[in-house]
Specification:
Oligomer: single chain
Largest sheet: 11 strands, mixed
Strand content: 5-15%
CATH topology: Indigoidine synthase fold
Bound molecules: pseudouridine-5'-monophosphate, manganese (II) ion
Order of helices and strands: EHEHHEEHEHEHEHHEHEEHEHHH
Shape: globular
CATH superfamily: Indigoidine synthase domain
Radius of gyration: 18 Å
Number of domains: 1
Number of helices: 13
Number of strands: 11
Length: 304
């Protein structure tokens, strides 16, 4: 494994010293936001993790190496490449690594690499899930299977309503993944604080999150834990506006026959175009909010 994994000096030093580390994904940089806001946001998210007392480890595949911890230049490179870089989920790892290629990591691959590196907490924006119409397309994100098998605590803002949120929760229940609401009983829907669906449990502090994750791992249950952290009220969007844009994006994707790994990036970009800059501003704020909670949870895990 040493041949495949490459830690940045800062991440290596932090892990050796037993300091809290938070993993961050890179598909959100390449495919989730436009340049240059993607690079600015990635750097701000790293700064937010540091301010909250943990070390950030942005994850990607560069030159065939599984990297935990990127330099500012590497983040700039991924942001500029944008969708030209391969969006890499679990099934993409073998060939990308063998070819010595680059890849931006999704939630699934970021979990894999974080776990290999010994990082237990990961912050992102939204996870992939069961797409609307999955009963015929079978389009279900590999993120859900990864949550079922890889022991990493993932802090997100719920999932976007580009997905079927009810089926996504059913899938996670089947797979035994605890879905926790942070200071809420309801699953947040990324741009909005509510979705109409209940989470499994509400926990109200980083210490409670850390204790639940520790219990899961110590019992040998394996698998990850999904913490859903609602977007701060002041940045949340009008549900009517965002849901109309999402419905339009989903119907455009169907009409154009978009499928496979292109579906999520297409929907993200279309929703952003339909809502102007407002959804992007919300997106940036919720990721910062998740980074802070992840850093506090990583610290709590160290002091249990
Ligand atoms: N949802 C978002 N923003 C994102 C993604 C999903 O709101 O950036 C990205 C994440 O990297 C996630 C991936 O892991 O898309 C899921 O892609 P797919 O549905 O193809 O598994
Ligand atoms: Mn898919």
């Amino acid at each position: 494994m040493k041949d495949y994994l490459e830690l940045s000096p800062a991440v290596k030093a932090a892990l050796m010293a037993g300091e809290p580390v938070v993993a961050l994904e890179s598909t959100i940089i390449s495919h989730g936001m436009p340049y240059p806001q993607n690079v600015e946001t990635a750097l701000r998210v790293e700064a937010a993790v540091r301010e909250a007392g943990a070390v950030p480890a942005t994850v990607a595949i560069l030159g065939g190496k599984l990297k935990a911890g990127l330099s500012a230049e590497e983040i700039e490179y991924l942001g500029k490449q944008g969708t030209a870089v391969t969006k890499a989920s679990r099934r993409d790892l073998p060939v990308l690594v063998a070819r010595g290629a680059d890849g931006a990591t999704t939630v699934a691959t970021t979990m894999i690499i974080a776990h290999l590196a010994g990082i237990r907490v990961f912050a992102t924006g939204g996870i992939g899930g069961v797409h609307r119409g999955a009963e015929t397309t079978m389009d279900i994100s590999a993120d859900l299977e990864e949550l079922a098998r890889t022991p990493v605590l993932v802090v997100c803002a719920g999932a976007k309503a580009i997905l079927d949120l009810g089926l996504t929760l059913e899938y996670l229940e089947t797979k035994g993944v605890p879905v926790i609401g942070y200071q809420t009983d309801e699953l947040p829907a990324f741009y909005t604080r509510t979705s109409g669906f209940r989470v499994d449990y509400r926990l109200d502090s980083p210490e409670e999150l850390a204790a639940a994750f520790r219990a899961q791992q110590e019992m040998g249950l394996g698998g990850g834990m999904l913490v859903t952290n609602p977007i701060p009220e002041e940045f949340s969007m009008d549900p009517a506006v965002i849901n109309a844009a999402i419905d339009q994006a989903v119907s455009d994707a169907r009409r154009l026959g978009i499928h496979g790994k292109e579906t999520t990036p297409y929907l993200l970009a279309r929703v952003k175009d339909l809502t102007g800059g407002e959804s992007l501003a919300s997106n940036i704020q919720l990721v910062l909010n998740n980074a802070r909670l992840a850093a506090r949870t990583a610290r709590a895990l160290k002091t249990l």
